[in-house]
Amino acid sequence: MSSVVGLLEQHELSARRRVDELREEADRIQAELALAEQEWKEWAIARSRVGAVLVPENGNADAEAARELRDAAKPKTQVPVWREGLAWSVLSVDYQRILQALADRHRLHQGPLTCQEMAAAFGMDVVPAKVEALRSKAKRLVARGWLAESAPGRFMLADPVAPRSGDGS
Length: 169
Hints:
Layout: H1 4-54, H2 61-70, H3 93-107, H4 115-121, H5 128-143, E1 147-151, E2 154-157
Antiparallel strand pairs: 1-2
Helix pairs in contact: 4-5
């Protein structure tokens, strides 16, 4: 007959193996996600460059507007100041994910989110480093007019960014 300690050690070992397997799978998925995000960015750049070549340089108002939207996110400006007609696609994937989470909350008539809640919603470890990285991004979005901070540390879409009822959003 096995001892209780021996049985506990077996269960612990089994659980540890499962954790190790899941960590390996998570690492593989993270690497695959990084590659997919890089490919997506490359395609977005390609589309942008083709759009730049195809935009006629004849002073047309539509061409000028397209040029402005294309140039909205300059290489040194990671988060452009929000303005009417500026698409979320000018933002990096991380910023788009924050906006999407808050847009979903807005659509469901739920309140603002804290960075801890965002981290949990994104499946991240809710540890200070991850939460502070999200807070930094959210604060940058607030400073550039994409988000509003309804109370300290509670973020929501800024009024002009929030989809209106009847927009199909």
